[in-house]
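Input record (one chain):
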Amino acid sequence: MFLFQAQPKNFNIKSIYNLEDNNQIIERIQKLTSNSKAQWGKMTVDQMLSHCQVPIDLAFGSTPLKANFMMRLLG
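The corresponding structure, as predicted from the sequence alone:
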C-alpha cells in the first residue's frame, strides 16, 4: 500500500501565495451567504469560516495553544 498516490495531471491545488488563486478564493468567500448549502460535509457557512480561522489564529498567537497532560509531562 502506498502512502502517497500520484495525482491526475489536471489536479491543481490553489495557493494563497499565487495572486490569481488568492483572488479566486476571496471571490468564492465573498459569494457565501447564510443560505449557502454545503457541497460536502455538514458544516454551516459560519462553522466552516470559524473552522478555517482557527489555524490562522494559532499561527498569529491570537489563540493560545493548550498543551495536554502528555505534552506538559514531556516538556
